[in-house]
Amino acid sequence: MSAQDVVGVIESNPGAIRVLRATADLGLPDWWIGAGFVRNRVWDAISGLPVAPARDVDVAYFDPDRLDPREDVRAEARAKVALPEVPWEIRNQARMHLRNGDEPYTSTLDAISRWPETATCVAVTLRGNSVRLVSCHGLTDLVGMVVRPTPAMDNAAGRAKVRYRVETKGWLHRWAGLRLEI
Prior knowledge:
The protein is an alpha/beta fold.
């Protein structure tokens, strides 16, 4: 599966396109939707499964001038007006380094690159009518259905967090073909 195929998985899903359009309408700077929004759809497509309802839609954006967490709450409220059935989670990555104990992030993609698993560090955005894809650590693990910690999580605590996520989110039950390299 190529980057074009991954984009095709997103573009072929009307619900995903509605979410992307609603997010674009929020006017957030440097916004991307990642994590399960992309990963789960790709793993479902590879596994021949129907798309499962999202537990959350991770919208990451970067605005160093709006660091108040209430800005995220307001953005989520606006998003819920547009698509009330969507479980929005909108976060300004310009302040998330504080929660994560990292050095300040320089952009949304810098923050996404530090998410727990390489297959999770894939995101899409909408520019005009075009879906754009970024894969911070390449697509090999995503399309190979490999769960591996990112370089930022490649330590005992990070590997434990990845194992916990795999277990609590039921990934091995949903996608029997997953390979854990933790």
